[in-house]
Amino acid sequence: MLTDEQRHELSDMPYWDDYLCYPQPCWHNISPGKTTLDEAIAIIQADPTLELFHADVPNGRIFMWERTSNPQAGGMISYTIPKDKELALIGSLYVSEAPEHELCLKDAISIYGNPIFVSYVISRHGGIFVDFSGNVIARIYDNLNPTSRDVFPNSSITQLIYSDSVGEVPDKQLWTGYSDTDSSQQTK
Question: Is the CB of residue 95 less than 8 Å from the CB of residue 159?
Fold first, then answer.
């Protein structure tokens, strides 16, 4: 749990309680590999700030949600049905906030601890992926400089991924800290 001092250091974002559930990794009290699909749907439907809908995809269905205040914010649930279980379990959560409420990397470090790895995927759907223990991954993408490999405390997180397992990613590098300080890059 965060101390009052750590909580005071977090960015100004109205949805902190969604991220500060325990035990981690979890979002909005939904934990990959533990929460059933029915439980996750009930949690999201009970929150008046979220709107749930589903989409049919080639391999089945996925469930998505949007924040009612801004459809740019939302996420997606993937799920699996383990062979020894009858109920579908949440496999992964993909969460994105609207640009004005995005978390910063320093916030993720306050919540999840120091990162373990960093990897770079330079493409339109890529970015910088910062891996934390507990299968939490923060995706950073700079629209103004999509090939950037710089990571700063105030780098905006465009997506948080919570998963019951993380596949092997080639070219992962051990986290060695933030990029060299450049104050022009650190303003949000």
Answer: yes
